[in-house]
Amino acid sequence: MIETSASAQAGPAGHAPHRATAGLPVPAGVGRFLVLAAVFVCAACGLVYELVLVAMGSHLAGGSVTNTSVVLSVMVFAMGLGALLAKRLRVRAAAGFGAVEALLALVGGGSAMALYGCFAWFGGSRAPLIGFALVIGVLIGAEMPLLMTLIQRIRRQDAGGAVADLFAADYVGALVGGLAFPFLLLPLLGQISGALLVGAVNAAVGCAMVLGLFRGDLSRRARRALLLVNTAITVLLIAGTTVVGPFEQAARRAVYGGEVRSAVTTDGRRIVLVENGPPADGTGRRGVGLFVDGRLRMCSRDERRYHEALVHPAMAAGPHGRVLVLGDGDGLALREVLRHPAVGSVTLVEPDAGVVGLARADALLGRLNRHSLDDPRVRVETGDVFDWLRSWPESGRQPYDVIVVDLPGPASAADPRPYSQEFFGLAGRALAGRGRLAVHAGPPGEDPHTYWTVEATVRSAGLGTTPYAVDGRLPGSCAGPGHTRPPESGRSAHWGFVLAARDAGPPLGLPPDGPRPRAVGPEDLRRAAARAAADRVAGLPPSTLTRPRYRG
Question: Which residues make up the binding site for spermidine (predicted)?
């Protein structure tokens, strides 16, 4: 940097004059534009890395507010730490910025592949996720102090003006990166390939800016090293995109423990259907497991007990000519509903059209759900279940005798709205006078706080409740990290449900003249009511949209 006296630097009103600095290969105005363009690109890449970590945390560690908050908090803290550490690099700002961008491209670009690999082969993702958030945050935080020094190398100006220019380019780049991630990178490339290519762009742009504008600040040896390192990183990241397919296949086999029949990505969620040996019912047919974002949603070895326990008690407690099913894109709860001859019409609302398409297209899954989605009595709609219930009065539809809520549960759902007081109030509004509501509410033994918060929230919407819990997964169920393992607390893992109706909780039983359940009998339901009561947690407040009470 050219040294000037204080009097020479001071301009009108105390501002430094716009003086070009010698040694640049381009005019000062062009150089300044190129630096700001590089800031724009690097900011877009940095935000993509952040979104990759948030998305991977949601998919692998659970889409809870807690996980998202931890990732973002650690990253913001690390950015401040990186800004402090960068103070030591300002004397060699060009070399420091080149090194930071090379390391950021390598770590950020490879983060999605590394996190998925840790999840697949080592069964853990939270600790590596925090580690990546810390490292990437430090590197992003180190960028701005170094860029501030470099842009002043091009043309001296007051600090406020330089900061304004840098932050403007940074924020606009972040906007572009934030929009490109869900609308371009995810649908066209996926998380792993998208992150790898963004890392390659990051390395190329950072290296080009330093060697193109500030090569005079580096020795011949430093220039050669910077070029070789960034070239190697760029080639490595681009080459990584060619092995993403085999890598994902190997990782899926490690995650799901079976042959992957189908894998699709819709609305940013990964849906995988796995074939994993004969089911426990002795039919000799191959069993299947349905995973969403790496978490088990359905296993054919024991799904019948779950769906019979969810559906048949609600169907037994009164009329059931009109039924509404929320969730259940796999058609298995719908299968149980249609076993009742008195059912005249069913509306199924599933948030993810990909699950419905898979349930219709796959032969094994279609045989398991008895092609219930194609029954003439069934109307299938895809969309947000909360918004669907909210618009129900304007739709002209008649109230429903039974509403079945077959969603993942508030502890594992990325969207807790369907388990809020407002949601159950909307569902109660759509019930007929003698209508019943059946809700999957999570395991009362393993997570009593969540289960009884759901029950308290249903009651807060003006409905009487009957809680019950049936036996959990069978030993040897579908493998993979999404499989329900015995909880560390030593409590048994069960499926918990809440049956509700206006005024008072409906009786828990099975229809005497209805279809005969194959997995859940009257004695099972009597034990189910006692089992839920044994783990009761009293005095819990309801969960609302503004005060969610579920622990992530």
Answer: 307, 330
